[in-house]
Amino acid sequence: LACLVRRSPERVTRAELIAMLWPGRDELRGKQSLRQALAELRAVIGESLLTEADTAGVSFSGCHLDTREFEEAVRLERWEDAALTWRGDFLLGADSLGGDAWGTWLTAERTILRGKAALVFQGLHAIAERRDDRKAAVDWAQKWCDVAPFDERACSSRIQSLVRIGRPVDAAVCYESFSRRVHSESHAAPSAAFEAIRKTFAANGTVPSRAVVRGEMTLSGLAQLTGDARSVAEAAAVIGEPAGPALLQAVSEVTSFSFRAAIAELVELGILRPAESVPETWEFVGQGGRHEYD
């Protein structure tokens, strides 16, 4: 039903529906399954179901689909109304209902709707910024990131909103998480413009020219590090300035017990050193120090 309503007023061929929903069945059984499904639909929506020998469709006037309401609100730039009708990914949990063709169609529809949702949350974030509503700006930026996880604009906006509201630790975590996500997906680093945003939460330190991303990019010559120590070292390199235990632990996502052991290991190896300017902080020994990093 959702497929037919989504495609309305276009008709869908019976052959396409069978290929999408019953790909493993022979022609006879596929046709029987489709006839049964259409009969069940007719019992629910009556004359709104439009069938012919080779096609099936649904009268849009006889059915309501919330994605249509959402898309109309987006078209009219009624961002608040669109946000209220956004229910998350289209047909969430329905991935296994059909075969490859079904999955391809579902992915394409979700991509289209996510793109429109990104426009909605971007617009609402901009409105919150103009109103200087910092909490709302953080919330809308988070929703924007949720629907556009690889969009540097979304992540940059969230980082800047977090800094403005006084949450630099969360901004650092957001930055490092995005960098790891991009590297994991494409084995590439974010753009130079995005990397420059580190200055917003590391404004008083010297930002390293190369950041370490957890994954295949590793600290040069430091294969002997434990996983937790490597995570803390990478976090220190990303932060790029003397950092206290709260910030280092939040960015590295290491537990309290493991964090203490990781700090001791890194200090012993000369990878971290106590910062002279601020007690109980450590700084990464980067270029020009005892160890280089890639």
Task: Briefly summarize what is shown.
This protein has 294 residues and is mainly α.
Account of the 3D structure:
By secondary structure, the chain is mostly helical. 56% of the residues lie in helices and 5% in strands. It has 13 helices and five strands. The chain has helices spanning 2-7, 14-21, 27-45, 66-75, 79-85, 100-130, 134-147, 152-164, 168-186, 192-195, 227-239, 245-252, 256-269, and strands spanning 12-13, 49-51, 55-58, 272-274, 282-284. The strands form two sheets. Strands 1-3-2 form a three-stranded antiparallel β-sheet. Strand 2 (49-51) and strand 3 form a beta hairpin. The radius of gyration is 26 Å and the shape is elongated.
Largest sheet: 3 strands, antiparallel
Helix/strand-derived category reads: mainly alpha
Low confidence ranges:
203-223, 286-294
Helical amount: 55-70%
Distance between the termini: 52 Å
Q: What is the 3D shape?
A: elongated
For this structure, the quaternary state is single chain
> Element order, helices and strands?
HEHHEEHHHHHHHHHHEE
The count of strands amounts to 5
Which whole number gives the mean pLDDT? 80
Percentage beta strand: 5-15%
**Whole-angstrom Rg:** 26 Å
Number of helices: 13
Strand order of the largest sheet: 1-3-2
Topology diagram in text:
Elements: H1 2-7, E1 12-13, H2 14-21, H3 27-45, E2 49-51, E3 55-58, H4 66-75, H5 79-85, H6 100-130, H7 134-147, H8 152-164, H9 168-186, H10 192-195, H11 227-239, H12 245-252, H13 256-269, E4 272-274, E5 282-284
Antiparallel strand pairs: 1-3, 2-3, 4-5
